[in-house]
Amino acid sequence: MLKRYADAHARSDTNAVIALLGPDVRFSVPPELARFEGRDAVADFVRDVLGAGSRANGHPAPRAH
Asked: Where are the domains of the chain?
């Protein structure tokens, strides 16, 4: 599962990342205080960070790392 997540994240494949999320997923972004709880909240965050439109050297790129 970790390899599938890493591969999907490297490809900026939001749908594949979201498909791996469980219903009780929790996500935080230290040292920021941001915390996301539940599949919908984390999916929104993933879409925002890996969303379409970000490119580097002509390739899809995450908006954050």
From this structure: 2-60
Looking at domain 2-60, its CATH class is: alpha beta
Tokens of 3: 């390899």
* H-assigned helices in 1-65: 2-10, 14-19, 39-50
Q: What pLDDT is stored for residue 29 in this prediction?
A: 83
Whether pLDDT at 65 is above 70: no
State the pTM of this model. Answer: 0.70
Query: Checking DSSP bridges between strand 59-60 and strand 26-28, what pairing results, if any?
Result: unpaired
Contact 63, 51 (CB under 8 A): yes
- Asked whether 42 and 36 are in contact (CB, 8 A), the reply is yes
Structure tokens at 12: 């900026």
Average pLDDT, the chain: 84
